[in-house]
Amino acid sequence: QVQLVESGGGLVQAGGSLRLSCGASGRTFSSAAMGWFRQAPGKERELVAAISWSGGPTYYADSVKGRFTISRDNAKNTVFLQMNSLKPEDTAVYYCAASTLDIREWPSSVGRPFFSWGQGTQVTVSS
């Protein structure tokens, strides 16, 4: 089991940048795929980005491609989400997640009990 703690959320103007961090504890971090989901008020949780345990293959939702970058540092048990060119529609609570699922299965696995979750961090983008 992996325990996850997010940080780095906040209020930013449209066009600005934020960097989210997720610190993990537990022996399985380096073998777990990691990712970020978000949930806006009244909307379902959606997958934003994911990265394989090796840091190689990645996945991005179409809505964030070219603007967001996911990375991980296995030596520091940390995963990051660099968010650039932020838009008001990016406003949501962002959740860090870990899973032994291959990231190719993540888009079809949202809502299924295959993930460990952080507590979430609020990102608000003002227009």
Detailed description of the structure:
The protein has strands spanning about 5, 10-15, 20-25, 35-40, 45-50, 60, 70-75, 80-85, 90-100, 115, 120-125. The chain is globular and about 40 Å long. With about 130 residues, it is mostly beta strands. It is about 0% helix and about 50% strand. Strands 2, 4, 5, 6, 9, 10 and 11 form a 7-stranded mixed β-sheet that branches. A 4-stranded antiparallel β-sheet has the order 1-3-8-7, with no helix packed on it. The protein is built from no helices and 11 strands.
Structure in a nutshell:
This protein has 127 residues and is mainly beta. Helices cover 0% and strands 48% of the residues.
Low-confidence stretches: none
Indicate the overall shape: globular
The helix/strand order is EEEEEEEEEEE
* Percent in helix: under 10%
| Secondary structure category | mainly beta
Radius of gyration equals 13 Å
Gap between N and C termini, in Å?
Answer: 39 Å
Largest sheet: 7 strands, mixed
Number of helices: 0
Portion of residues in beta strands equals: over 45%
Number of E-state strands: 11
The residue-averaged pLDDT reads 94
